[in-house]
Amino acid sequence: MSDDCIFCSIVAGDIPARTVYETDAVLAFLDANPLARGHTLVIPKSHAQHVGDLDAALASDLFDAVASLTPRIQEAVDADGANVGVNDGEAAGQEIPHVHAHVVPRFEGDGGAPIHAVAGERPELSDDELDAVADEVAAAIDA
């Protein structure tokens, strides 16, 4: 746990939250500033700032919870769909430096946009550039 992390303080019980799900490894609670009715945050109980900081078991616990909770959240608020996302790092909009997945229920005509909208304008990349990026990513994964 991190002493200066609001999510760690929620896990410790020092800050109240509207908890909807809890296991030994994962906690899910309603977002205090929701984007939609039922907007839920799913976090690992142990502190990790970035997705890459999670070990395999904790990543599995976290994303298993997200997969299990998403349709149940949708059903609870009678949503037509959901956006599921993780802001990983300050440049990606991560406001709390503790890994968390957002489950944002979506409703027909709610005025929201698909997850693609978060990235702004799409870059124009040639096939050669796409091939080069694929090679760079593959090399980084193999490293």
Automatic annotation (TrEMBL):
GO biological process, one term: nucleotide metabolic process
Occurrences of domain HIT (ranges): 6-113
Superkingdom assignment: Archaea
Residue positions of motif Histidine triad motif: 98-102
One Gene Ontology term of the molecular function aspect: catalytic activity
Active site: H100 (tele-amp-histidine intermediate)
PANTHER family the record matches: ADENOSINE 5'-MONOPHOSPHORAMIDASE HNT1, HIT FAMILY PROTEIN 1
Protein name listed in UniProt: Histidine triad (HIT) family protein
Native source organism of the sequence: Halorubrum xinjiangense
